[in-house]
Amino acid sequence: MPQPGECLNDMVPPHYVALFDGIAAQAGGGVMLLFPVWCEAFINDADLGLATRALEQLNVHPYKTFQDKITLSQPMAAMAVPKSYVNCRMDTAMPQSLGWHPRLSERLGLFRYVECSGSHEVWFTDPAAIAAAIEQAGRD
Description:
two-stranded antiparallel ribbon, two-stranded parallel ribbon, 7 helices, alpha+beta
């Protein structure tokens, strides 16, 4: 949930930015996570086989999407649109001291909170759980 004028790199720890900068420099402007980072921080609820197969399905991600500032006319909290937040309890992609919820979800203002088990990559490890959570988040 970036605020107007923020980008993803503004919301992550400096050592993440340094990691992303280094990967992007070597990959010609794209980011593909190193397997240990992928395995331990993004898909930590998968066995080795699933973690490997899942990473093989991914494409290099354009790094500019981490760096480009978002353009919004107002903060999300001020927008009069329904908002929901799905929190995956095993998501360790961000250091736990900088957790996604409530640090970023509070930026939504009034929102529906839905929780499910799973990591940042729950769509690989438990697609039924994330589908149910998204359905619950949009039940109205």
